[in-house]
C-alpha cells in the first residue's frame, strides 16, 4: 500500500538518486503535515456545522476544563489554548458578542481581567463536546486497543522530542543577558 508521501519520495529518488538515503524524514514529517491538514479541514467543517470556529471551540473547552468558576486570565488562556497573543483580544470580543464568554474584572486588581465561560457558553460546549469526541473517533481507523496505545506512545515521544528540541533552540537563540555593572 502506498500513499501520496510515497509517491513524492519516489519522485525525489528518480530526480536525485544521490539523496535516496536522506529522504527518510519525509516519510514521517510529510505524513504528519498531511494528517494535520486533513484533520484541520475535517474539524473545521464539524465546528462550522455547530456555528463555531476551531479556535472558539478550543477556548470554550479550555475554560470548561479549568473547573469552577470556569474562568482564566487572557494570559492563562493563551498558555492553555491554541491561540496567539495578537488575536486574543479580538477573539474574546467576538466570543463575548456571541454570549459564549464574558470579561470579569478582578476584585483584587481592577486592572486585571478574567475571561469567564457564560451559562450559554457552558451549554454550547457541553452539548458539542460529546459530538466532538464521536467525530474524532469516526475520523480514526478501526485499530485494536494495543495498536492505539502504541501509536499514542510513539506520537507522545515525537511530541516530547520536538518540544524539547524547540525549547533548546529558543534558549540558544535568545539574546544573552547583560551582566549588571
Short recap of the structure:
The chain has 181 residues and is mainly alpha-helical.
Distance between the termini: 65 Å
How many structural domains in the coordinates? 3
CATH superfamily name of the largest domain?
Winged helix-like DNA-binding domain superfamily/Winged helix DNA-binding domain
* Overall morphology: elongated
- Quote the CATH topology of the largest domain: Arc Repressor Mutant, subunit A
Low-confidence stretches: 177-181
* CA-based gyration radius: 22 Å
Number of helices: 7
- Order of SSEs, N→C? HHHEHHEEHH
Could you describe the largest sheet, including whether it forms a barrel?
A: 3 strands, antiparallel
Task: Give the name of the CATH architecture of the largest domain.
Answer: Orthogonal Bundle
Q: What is the CATH class name of the largest domain?
A: Mainly Alpha
Can you give the helix content as a percent range? 55-70%
Mean pLDDT: 90
> What strand line-up does the widest sheet have?
1-3-2
> How many DSSP E strands?
3
Strand proportion, as a percent range, falls in: 5-15%
Protein name: DNA-binding MarR family transcriptional regulator
InterPro entries: HTH_MarR-typ (IPR000835), Tscrpt_reg_MarR-type_CS (IPR023187), WH-like_DNA-bd_sf (IPR036388), WH_DNA-bd_sf (IPR036390)
Organism: Saccharopolyspora antimicrobica
Pfam families: MarR (PF01047)
Amino acid at each position: 500500500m502506498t500513499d501520496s508521501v510515497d509517491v513524492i519520495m519516489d519522485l525525489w529518488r528518480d530526480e536525485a538518486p544521490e539523496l535516496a538515503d536522506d529522504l527518510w524524514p519525509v516519510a514521517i514529517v510529510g505524513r504528519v503535515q498531511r494528517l494535520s491538514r486533513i484533520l484541520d479541514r475535517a474539524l473545521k467543517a464539524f465546528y462550522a456545522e455547530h456555528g463555531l470556529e476551531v479556535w472558539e471551540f478550543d477556548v470554550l473547552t479550555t475554560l470548561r476544563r479549568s473547573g469552577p468558576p470556569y474562568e482564566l486570565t487572557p494570559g492563562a488562556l493563551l498558555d492553555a489554548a491554541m491561540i496567539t497573543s495578537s488575536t486574543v483580544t479580538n477573539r474574546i470580543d467576538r466570543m463575548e458578542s456571541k454570549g459564549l464568554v464574558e470579561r470579569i474584572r478582578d476584585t483584587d486588581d481592577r486592572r486585571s481581567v478574567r475571561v469567564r465561560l457564560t451559562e450559554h457558553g457552558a451549554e454550547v460546549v457541553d452539548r458539542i463536546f460529546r459530538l466532538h469526541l464521536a467525530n474524532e473517533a469516526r475520523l480514526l481507523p478501526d485499530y485494536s486497543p494495543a495498536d492505539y496505545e502504541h501509536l499514542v506512545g510513539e506520537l507522545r515521544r515525537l511530541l516530547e522530542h520536538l518540544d524539547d528540541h524547540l525549547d533548546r533552540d529558543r534558549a540558544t537563540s535568545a539574546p544573552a543577558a547583560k551582566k549588571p555593572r
